[in-house]
Design brief:
Order of helices and strands: HHHHH
Radius of gyration: 17 Å
Helix content: over 70%
Number of domains: 1
Largest sheet: none
Length: 122
């Protein structure tokens, strides 16, 4: 149960992180948003990133083996990175129709899966 809760919270966290880091590139298509200065865009991104931390901190606290969770610190970090890249690719394909997945991206994904395999191997 703690493993699924941790993964779910990391998915939510990384969804907000992706919006905070890259959403402004898409939001710039909105007329009102495109008129904002850099400081305003940074403040909006910080506001979105706040929600990232609301999910990320509990995910790590619940998931960390030192707190009774199922994952080592290294496993938590690898999970977070893989989830980040999956969320990012989904966001990119949905929000930016000009981006495509190429063969080298697929090979990179295979290496990520192998990384998870080796990190979690006992």
């Amino acid at each position: 149960m703690k493993a699924l809760l941790t993964i779910g919270l990391l998915v939510l966290s990384n969804t907000f992180m992706t919006l905070a880091w890259y959403g402004h590139l898409k939001f710039a298509e909105w007329k009102w948003f495109s008129k904002l200065g850099l400081v305003s865009v940074i403040l909006i991104s910080w506001g979105i990133a706040f929600f990232e931390y609301i999910f990320q901190v509990p995910a790590n606290k619940i998931g960390f083996a030192g707190n009774g969770g199922p994952f080592s610190l290294v496993q938590l970090k690898v999970l977070q990175e893989v989830i980040t890249l999956v969320i990012f690719m989904i966001f990119t394909l949905i929000a930016f129709k000009t981006e495509t997945v190429k063969w080298n991206h697929a090979i990179g994904a295979v290496f990520l899966i192998l990384a998870v395999y080796f990190i979690f191997k006992k």
